[in-house]
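Chapter review: from sequence to fold.
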Amino acid sequence: MGSNLPYYEQRRQLSPEKPIRLEHFPYRRVADMASVLPDAADADSPLKADELQVLRAQYEKEGYYVGVQTKFNYAWGLIKSSSRNEQQEGVRLLSDIFRNAPERRRECLYYLALGNYKLGNYAEARRYNDLLLDHEPANLQGSSLRGLIDDKVAKEGLMGVAILSGVAIAAGVVGGMLFKGAKRR
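The token string follows.
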């Protein structure tokens, strides 16, 4: 595209009149990544159906011999989706890349963490994110995602405590009523 804007800003500038091509999608070279990684908030804005279809069509076209970059781009689009099934498929594809392409592991860490975060798998999200931050402590995306993961875990932990407290109170009330009823006999 020739612009100095980060990828996610370039994507926002696409108009319906412009054809969507693979060059509009994240990373054609590993060297491109450092300057264009979006933050965690960008993952909440799913691709348009036709944009995801471009990635899906390229992935399916390459078939059995699908390239790592094509698989990564498609997984990235799936992770951004609001469909849980598509997010799970994105995590599966990224896990496959992580296992089978050691040279691409660093690229996968952030998106594996993000995908697991979106799926509510906070322990896995934290594990991948911590791996990323162990290697790159100053990584802004990883730091941002760590905050989101910690907030969710704390919020859900408080909800869990509130639910357990409610159950304990209800059990105490029921137990008290049963105890009173047993005393009267």
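Two observations follow directly from the output. Confidence is low (pLDDT under 50) at residues 1-37. The two ends are 84 Å apart (CA to CA).
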